[in-house]
Amino acid sequence: MERQTLFRGLAKDRQPAFRTGNLGRLLLTAHTNWQGALARELRNEGFPSVRRTHLSLLRHIDMDGTRITEIADRAGVTKQAVGQLVATCVEAGLVDVVSDPNDRRAKLVRFTDAGRALILAQLNVFERLDAELIDLLGDKAYKDLRVTLEKFADWQPSL
């Protein structure tokens, strides 16, 4: 049976081929699949309202809270886009928004108890996803992939 590559949320048009076969697109597709699996498994862990979009925000929030402007900078999106994501996470009970104690004009996004529990639940899910990838790739290829991705994550293009 031929394995089909999933392109969740991405254009399915494969022409010209460089649009879907380039390294960036492959990384994006892998990330999208990872996010989908993570969200699905977190729902199975008792977080029925969690969505991939929530995870795209939560990864940018420090455990002691983060200003909306800092989240926007980290995510590379506008403050308005972060505000919309924050609103969905507030509605899901994962975060709350308070005045920053260092500057009352600024807003600080903090994890609720449910949000902290979700972050901790990710550890179990990560272990299961890693085990599945080890089964798929083999132990050596998995370890090599991690080393390669760590280097790639630190890479600063000179172009």
Overall mean pLDDT: 90
Alpha-carbon distance between the two ends: 41 Å
What is the gyration radius calculated from CA atoms? 18 Å
Determine the fraction of residues in helical runs and give it as a percent range.
Answer: 55-70%
Largest sheet: 3 strands, antiparallel
Helix/strand/pairing class, anyone? mainly alpha
Sketch the topology as an H/E string, one letter per element: HHHEHHEEHH
Q: What gross morphology would you assign?
A: globular
SS strand fraction? 5-15%
Sequence of strands across the biggest β-sheet: 1-3-2
Number of helices: 7
Task: Give a written overview of the molecule.
There is one protein chain. The chain starts with 17 loop residues before the first helix and ends in a 5-residue tail after the last helix. The radius of gyration is 18 Å and the shape is globular. It is built from 7 helices and 3 strands; from the N terminus they run H-H-H-E-H-H-E-E-H-H. The longest helix has 25 residues, at 113-137. Mean pLDDT is 90; it is low at 1-5. Strand 2 and strand 3 form a beta hairpin. 13% of the residues are buried. The chain has a 3-stranded antiparallel beta sheet. By secondary structure, the chain is mainly alpha-helical. It has helices at 18-21, 23-44, 52-58, 68-75, 79-91, 113-137, 139-154, and strands at 66-67, 95-100, 103-111.
SSE order and pairing:
Blueprint: H1 18-21, H2 23-44, H3 52-58, E1 66-67, H4 68-75, H5 79-91, E2 95-100, E3 103-111, H6 113-137, H7 139-154
Antiparallel strand pairs: 1-3, 2-3
Helix pairs in contact: 2-6, 4-5, 6-7
